Every structure is written in structure tokens, then in C-alpha cells.
Amino acid sequence: MTKQESLLLMAKRVGDTVRKMAGDGKSLYTPFMAAASNAVSQRIASVDFVLDLRDARIPLSSECELLRRLSSSSSSRRIVVLNKVDLASRSNVKEWTRYFERESFPTFGVNSHNKDNIQEFLGFLQSQVRALKKAEPERHTITMMLVGIPNVGKSALANSLHHIGRISAAEKGNLKHAVVSPIPGETKGICSLKVASHPSIYILDTPGILPPQLIDVEVCAKLALTGALRDNLAGEKALAQYFLSVLNFNHEYQKWEKLSTFELPNSGNNDNVLPRIGSFENKTSTPEIITDHTQDSVVLSVRRSLFEAVTSFRGNLREEEELLRLIKAEFDVLKKAFKLPTGPEEDIEHKVAVKLLNLFRTGRLGHYILDSIPVNIKDV
Ligand SMILES: Nc1nc2c(ncn2[C@@H]2O[C@H](COP(=O)(O)OP(=O)(O)OP(=O)(O)O)[C@@H](O)[C@H]2O)c(=O)[nH]1
Ligand SMILES: [Mg+2]
């Protein structure tokens, strides 16, 4: 199997379970989500811009299907916003930005929790508004609607733009707060927040919208891993196994080499990683301490354990059984790294999985983009 085929296999295990649990997605598309879809569909014709919010880790899989359907009939300008760039590999975000620009969408990568970033993004939005005002000078109020799948960060972005945009305004002290939560499906209605004056710019925060049917199992798996779907659909253990398969085929863990006394083989290809030292024991030197904000002993221990587990593995990762054997070994070393007390195997594995997912989703286990840029036949 190729690397892509191995990852697809792991994604399918998760995606199939999600689809089964969610009845092909039907139970995710609640009456409340149907109402939100109607509300967005009705509003779209009257807004000036649609901010098509994507998760930078899955720029294609996080596309809101409703928006794709509405775009052909709507005249509003669509801007692609890649949110959570702090969790995605930076150089790849640039490539994705160029990809969407080639598709004729103005595009911006943003971390909704970073003030400077939001300030820049607000400047970018104002430049788009100036271009619109040139064509239609009588416009004094501009509306932008944020649309996206659940948990992509719409409310966090709306809040940040509102707070930064109104910081020096008379309304200071009178700021609104859209509800932000790691649980998908938190926003229940459309809410308007002012982000600028002269001209007035309003952002509409909307509820997250999924398609009535989740068809593609790989997309399901990616949505589940990044937190757009509730974890109990796939189960935390299956999600953590999927994440570990992504990690095993990625280069991110190689950055943790300095935490270990292990050495990486010289080969630049990590599809078939072999160890130079075949045992986890026998440490002779103290690991070098990384001086970043992740300097947390558990995180360092997790990174070191994963690095050592992958580099000491002698099997062929392209064979399903071997990949699963490595993942099992990783779970075993993670139990120690997370300092979990002994207990029933199932409970401990569940705890490992929950903790591992939390570290992945807060960016402490590297930066990943799970989608690949489509190859345009014309570019080949
Ligand atoms: N690391 C990181 N986390 C973010 C970012 N933006 C939002 N989040 C987190 O993502 C989670 C979801 O954010 P929300 O703003 O509630 O997402 P939403 O799209 O409004 O979700 P729904 O209302 O459920 O559709 C929260 O835990 C946020 O703190 C970002 O740029 N980077
Ligand atoms: Mg929200």
C-alpha cells in the first residue's frame, strides 16, 4: 500500500463508524440545523460579502456544502478564510492560499485568538470594502456573513473582529460576546456584531451547518478528528488511532529528535522509518529542553515517547497490520507518558485517547494539513 492508501484505510475505519452512528449523517442534520440552513439561504442574497470559513487543517473537507450550492445563485462576494492557521503547517497554508486565489477567491489565513492577526485581517476586509465602495459610493453599511461547518471558529472570529474593531469606539464597554465553545453546534441563531464605522461594517455570526447527508467517509473522519463532529460518534480511541497514523506518516515527529537520545536514520523518507537504536532503554544524556510555550513535562514526555516509538519500529508501515502494531505500541508508551494510574485496559486507553486528542487539537503535537491540493490537469 502507498502512504495515501494506508491513511485512507485508517480514515475509513473512523468514517464508517461515524456514518453508521449518525445514520449517514441524518441524525447530525437536526431540525435546528435545517432551520439554520434556511436562515442562511434567505440572508445570503442581501449580504455584501460571505466569509467562507474553513479549518486550515482541512481546507477542502471543511467546505460548507450549503455554501457551494448557494454560490452559483448568489451575487455576494465570497472570501475564503482559513481559520486556526496556528494549528496548520505554515508553508502549506501559503500553498492553500495560492490555490484558492487561483480559484478566484480572495483568501486570508487567520488565527482568531491572535490580536495582531485579527487586526491585519480587519485591514484586509476594509480593503475589500473600499473596492466595493468605489463601485457603489452610496453604500454606508456593509454586511458580511460568516458561514461554515460547526466548530470551525465562526463565533471566535466574530468576537475577535468585534473587539479589535470597536476597541477605540464609543461603544467600548458595551461589547457583545458570541458563545465560543469546543463543542460543535453551540451557536443557535444569527447574531450581528459591528466591527467598523465609516462605513459601518457588520459581521453576522451563524450556526455551523453540515450537509443533510455525510457521504464521503474520508471527509467524515477528518471532520471528526478536527472536532467538527462530536467525539462520541467515532469514539475517542478510534480518533486517536487515526491521529497516530497521520503522525506516523508525517515529518512533524522528527522535530522531537532532540528530546531523545535516539538518532534518526539519514534517509529523508519517513515512510519506512527504521531505528538506529533498537531499544527504548539505555538513555545516557539528559534530553535538551525546548524553550517554547509547550515546555510542559507531560507534553515533552509524550513527544519523546512517540518519537522513540516510531523510530524504533522495524515493521513496514504500509502494511495495515504493521501500522496497527505500531499504534498499539504507541498507546502503550503513552500510558506512561501521561502518567496514568493502572486500571481496566479499556478505561486507560480511553483516557490516553482523550488526552492525545486534546494535545493534537491544541497544536502541541505539531502542525498538520490533512487535505491535499487538487492537481489541476492544466498545471500538469
Ligand atoms: N487554535 C485555535 N482555536 C480556535 C481558533 N478559532 C476558534 N478556535 C477554537 O475552536 C473552538 C470552536 O470555536 P467557535 O467559535 O465556538 O466555533 P463555531 O464555528 O462558532 O462553532 P458552532 O457555533 O458550533 O458552529 C473553540 O474552542 C475556539 O476557542 C483559532 O484560530 N485557533
Ligand atoms: Mg458559533
Automatic annotation (TrEMBL):
<dbReference type="InterPro" id="IPR027417">
    <property type="entry name" value="P-loop_NTPase"/>
</dbReference>
<dbReference type="GO" id="GO:0005525">
    <property type="term" value="F:GTP binding"/>
</dbReference>
<keyword id="KW-0547">Nucleotide-binding</keyword>
<feature type="domain" description="CP-type G">
    <location>
        <begin position="37"/>
        <end position="212"/>
    </location>
</feature>
<dbReference type="Pfam" id="PF01926">
    <property type="entry name" value="MMR_HSR1"/>
</dbReference>
<protein>
    <recommendedName>
        <fullName>CP-type G domain-containing protein</fullName>
    </recommendedName>
</protein>
<dbReference type="GO" id="GO:0032543">
    <property type="term" value="P:mitochondrial translation"/>
</dbReference>
<keyword id="KW-0342">GTP-binding</keyword>
<dbReference type="InterPro" id="IPR023179">
    <property type="entry name" value="GTP-bd_ortho_bundle_sf"/>
</dbReference>
<dbReference type="GO" id="GO:0003924">
    <property type="term" value="F:GTPase activity"/>
</dbReference>
<dbReference type="InterPro" id="IPR030378">
    <property type="entry name" value="G_CP_dom"/>
</dbReference>
<dbReference type="InterPro" id="IPR006073">
    <property type="entry name" value="GTP-bd"/>
</dbReference>
<dbReference type="GO" id="GO:0005739">
    <property type="term" value="C:mitochondrion"/>
</dbReference>
